[in-house]
Write a structure and sequence with these properties.
The protein is of the alpha/beta class and 376 residues long.
């Protein structure tokens, strides 16, 4: 470990001028920077204006106890991380324990051996160096992570707009009537629409995730007609359902109003429905229910697909991305969908819940307070 000792300053708090001079010479010969204080006031004056890495403290300084001085230092936030080594002629167990209890990290008996003193000082300097190195590495890592997340957010945002436009075009094409002899063309359009929808969902999830981590995700609640948002998402995802011959059934109570961010609500519903379609079998159905339950609106997405084992359910309960699992038609995914749903719903005074039985299907739902008509 190559440490530049001249980068470290040691404060020697010693009122005996001979001992102070000896300590200064020993430390300077090794290359350390040395600051001298012969009183409590002088020591604090140096601490207030100079950078100090380590303190060598005499236990008795004039009428003051070094134990009390160290306690005062340890109670001062800007100084409490500076290690203190006592230099003392006191060697009783009680005095040694008192020294450690006051906040000192080590002690050296008088008369001291220079080599022992240097070894103990070097030990503390090594620890300081390692701590500074770790802090530097931590800051570099945090900066790298922040830069990575910023890049993710920028890329996701820049890709989201063109893919949203492509998705809209393909969705419109998929709703057009075609002749029977153009069935293959319709399937191609459906497939293109499904791919665009999956890409859009992935980018939308990634964008929301990174913005959430960076504290940049804005939540702008407003009065929302819950049923209208559901119907809008269902229409967009019908081509995806048709590709697997899956029927989307709805049992929707109308005129339920909630106070929520529309964009986030669409993302939540889209993720739940895409998840249900992904793990449903060809020719089956997915049900979407919306109903009132007291002062709350409850939405459920129910499928009879592959369900989830206990390990996957546990990861969702613990708010961890469950990882990518291929769907029943080998669809791929990021594993972020359900994690994002839970984070956004529970973080905004809502409740996320689910039930699942492996090989029988799953039910995912959310419970959000309704907006009282008096508040409209």
């Amino acid at each position: 470990m190559n440490i530049q000792l001249d980068q470290f300053n040691i404060l020697v708090a010693e009122d005996n001028p001979i001992h102070s001079l000896i300590l200064e010479n020993i430390l300077r010969m090794q290359g350390y920077g040395v600051l001298l204080a012969d009183s409590f006031d002088k020591a604090f004056s140096i601490l207030s204006k100079d950078h100090v890495d380590l303190i060598l403290m005499d236990v008795i300084m004039g009428d003051m106890s070094g134990f009390d001085i160290v306690k005062t230092i340890m109670e001062t936030p800007e100084y409490q991380d500076i290690p203190v080594i006592f230099i003392t002629s006191l060697d009783s167990t009680e005095d040694i324990i008192r020294g450690f209890d006051s906040g000192a990290v080590d002690y050296i008996r008088k008369p001291f051996e220079p080599q022992i003193l240097l070894r103990r000082v070097r030990q503390q300097i090594n620890l300081l160096y390692q701590r500074k190195f770790i802090e530097t590495q931590k800051k570099s890592l945090e900066a790298a992570i922040a830069s990575r997340d910023q890049i993710y957010a920028i890329i996701s945002h820049d890709l989201r707009t063109p893919i949203a436009s492509l998705k809209m075009i393909l969705n419109i094409l998929s709703l057009q009537e075609v002749h029977k002899d153009q069935e293959s063309l319709r399937q191609m359009v459906y497939s293109g629409n499904d791919i665009a929808e999956q890409l859009f969902s992935l980018l939308d999830n990634l964008l929301k995730w990174t913005k959430s981590r960076l504290g940049m995700l804005s939540f702008v609640p407003q009065s929302v007609q819950f049923d209208q948002v559901i119907f809008g998402v269902v229409e967009v995802l019908r081509p995806t359902a048709l590709l697997k011959d899956i029927t989307i059934e709805t049992c929707i109570e109308s005129c339920i109003t909630i106070y929520f961010d529309t964009d986030i609500l669409k993302s939540v519903i889209r993720n739940l429905l895409i998840n249900a379609l992904k793990f449903s079998h060809k020719g089956s159905s997915v049900k979407i229910l919306l109903y009132s339950e007291g002062s709350c609106a409850v939405m459920e997405v129910v499928d009879t697909g592959v369900g989830m084992d206990e390990s996957i359910q546990k990861s969702i309960r613990e708010s961890l991305p469950s990882g990518s699992r291929p769907g029943t038609a080998n669809e791929q995914g990021s594993g972020l969908g359900l994690w994002i749903v839970k984070q956004f719903v529970q973080g905004k005074e809502g409740e996320f819940f689910f039930e699942s039985v492996e090989n029988q299907g799953s039910k995912f739902g959310l419970r959000i307070p309704k907006l009282d008509r008096k508040e409209l």
